[in-house]
Every structure is written in C-alpha cells, then in structure tokens.
Amino acid sequence: MPAPPLRPTPRIAHLDMDAFYASVELLRYPELKGQAVVIGGGRDAQPEVLPDGTRRYARLRDYVGRGVITTSTYEARALGVFSAMGMMKASKLAPDAVLLPVDFPAYRHYSRLFKEAVAAIAPVIENRGIDEIYIDLTEIPEASEPLAMRLKQAVQAATGLSCSIGISHCKLIAKIASDLQKPNGMSIVMQDDIPARIWPLAVSKINGVGPKATERLTRLGIHTIGELAAQPRELLIRRFGNSYGAWLADAAQGIDERPVVTESEPKSISRETTFERDLHPRGDRAQLSDILVQLCTRLADDLQRKRYASRTIGIKLRYDNFDAVTRDHTITAPTTQADDILRAARECLKRVPLDRKLRLLGVRAGKLSPMDAMPEQPIKIQPELPFE
Q1: Structural domain total, the chain
Q2: Is residue 4 part of a domain?
C-alpha cells in the first residue's frame, strides 16, 4: 500500500498595515507627512480650513482633558508617544505634535479595501482586526518573496497605503517577522532561521509577553528570546505555571500549531490592552477610565463592522500578580452601542476586587446575534463616566 503523500510545510503570512489610522489620515492631509501626528482627539481637534485654503491644526500642547491616544505616526513614536498613552502625558513629550480626531468609518473603508485586495491573490485569510490579517500561503505555488511583493503592491494599489509582511511556518513567528523591518517591510523567517533572526530579539517581541512578564523574565536573567529558549521547560512551568510556562517554552522555539482560521460565526468579540506600567484603580482612575472608554468604543466598532449585536458584556482584569478575573453582565436587548457596553462593563466592575494594581483590562461582547438587516448605527459614548 503506497504511503500517504507528505503534507507541505505550512507557510503563513502576517500582514500588518503601517500605522494604519494615522496613515489613513495622511491620505486626507498629505501636508502632514513626515510630521509627528497623534490620533485620538474629539470634534474640537477637527482641522480648521482658513480663507486661503490652508488648514490650521490642533496641537497636542493645547489639549486639556483625560483622553488617551488611539495611535500615532512613526515620527511621534520616535518621541516616545504611543497608543493608549494619556494625551496629557504625551503633550509633555511631543507638545508640537498635530492632534487629529478619530474617524472609524474611514478606517473601516480602507480596512475593507486592503482585505479585498489580498483575498484576490490569497483567499485563505484570518481577520485579526481592522489593520492586520493572517494569510495561509501553503497551497500557493509561487515563491515567498515575489508573492509577498505582489501582496504589498496590491494593497498599495487598492488603498495608497503601505503594509509590512512577515512569512514563516507558523503564526507566532510570522507576526514577529512582520515587525522586523517596519514600515513597508518584508521578512521571511522559516524554522531554520530562528536561531539567527529571532533568538537575538528581546523577549517582549513575542506576542503574549507583556511588560510584567518581561520584568519577571529579566529578574531571572532572561532578556532575549534565545535566552528564553535555553531555559529548561520545567523551570518555566515552575515559575510561570503549567499553561503560561509551557507556552513560553514553545514560543521561544517557534512552536505554534494554531491554524489560520477563516471567517466563521464568532462566539464572542473582545478588546483588551496590557498597560505599559501597572495601574491602580484608585491612583490611576482617570487613565483607566479613558482606557475603558476607548476599549468600549473599539468593541462597538467591531460589532458594527462585523454586523453583530451582543446581549452579554464581560470584563477581564489581570492583576499585578498575574491572577485574572472575569465578570459578565446580561442586558435587556442586544446592542452595538458603546454607551450600552460601557454601562454594562461598569456593572461588571462593581463585582470585582479593585484593591490592587492592574496590568491588563479587557472588554468582551458575548451572546452575539447577526444583524445583517440592521442599518449601521453611530457609535455614541459618554466619556465622562468613571472607571468604577
């Protein structure tokens, strides 16, 4: 009896749009190219058109409030200004940065354009959000480098925007690879390339190793992915627990068997963020409130874009000791609205201990129902609602 044919080595790409929200805004305001630009302002940050046709832009130094940054251009990032940072703090780092309002409908439009362009070439796609996707290239006979270039050119032609692509044998390494030569980069890193290309990188480059885990690894003398790969699996499990410790050991070796999952009916949709530093519900209440508002706004945008409404809203907290807690709250009618999500999330927060610092906050929408016949609703939010 003949042996079954060998399965081809998986070939997976991670495509990440470069500074997506900011890049979309630069299409609208090309005179801002090369400048430090921050996205996250409200309506008062709308540029003013002057009588001579030029525009007057709001500046970060003039901002007063409790808002947080949605994203920033690479020039602003070079000054230390990143997403989820409080804008008052950012104004001290980059006072002359231009401040623009968020425009989710425009971002959804360009997201649809780039994904359609990719699907015309490589249709097996896992949607990871508004600005990134995984692509299964295993069955496409074309070599990786020309195929990646063709994908990049298709995205550029469809949107006028650049993207970065990483190609590897698994999703975890493909995501790391897509960040190696940003912006407008392309990196091919297969299993044999891991010691030379991946192991010299900081452990924080692994998606899933946040600031707190990085700090704990540093205390163990582990700074790079290679140093992590050299650790006995039993040590990592003893230090970080069965699940996370085993995952760290596998991740450092480039072991990740997750397949590319094409569009299917989701059980839930979530948004979460790990903080640059641990935040206390009392001392950092204003910043946590802003982050919660932004998570609820983005979750509402995800629901509307994917045409689902939710009846159960949940929150997830991870404390500074890595313990995690979740709570759910069921509302009377399915919603896609950010103010409903925020209100339910605050109900959840009333039922969890808020007596120690937090390293992660997440919001989840469950009990989803398709809303194909529902017209798109505006995303409303009451930004002054507190964290708790």
Answers
A1: 4
A2: no
CB-CB contact of 141 with 11 (8 Å): no
Q: What is the pLDDT of residues 331-354, one digit of tens each?
A: 988 999 999 999 999 999 999 989
The residue among 336, 273, 345 whose CA lies nearest residue 306 is: 336
Residue 196 burial (10 A CB sphere; 0-12, 13-18, 19+): exposed
CATH number of domain containing 111: 3.30.70.270
> Among 148, 66, 71, 139, which Cα is nearest to 107's?
71
| Residue 35 to residue 136: CA distance in whole angstroms | 36
Q: Let me know if residue 385 belongs to a domain.
A: no
Q: Residue 165: which of 212, 202, 229, 121 has the closest Cα?
A: 121
Give catalytic residue positions: 132
In contact, 253 and 240? CB cutoff 8 Å = no
The CATH number of residue 295's host domain is 3.30.1490.100
Cis-peptide into 105, omega within 30 deg: no
CATH number reported for the structural domain that contains residue 26 in this entry: 3.40.1170.60
For residue 258, is it within any domain? no
Domain membership of residue 297 as a residue range: 268-370
239: Cα separation from own chain's centroid: 28
Choosing from 165, 194, 223, the residue where a domain stops is 194
Angle between helices 338-349 and 285-306 (to 10 degrees): 130
| C-beta of residue 183 within 8 angstroms of C-beta of residue 162 | yes
- pLDDT one-digit tens code per residue, 76-108: 999 999 888 888 889 999 999 999 998 888 999
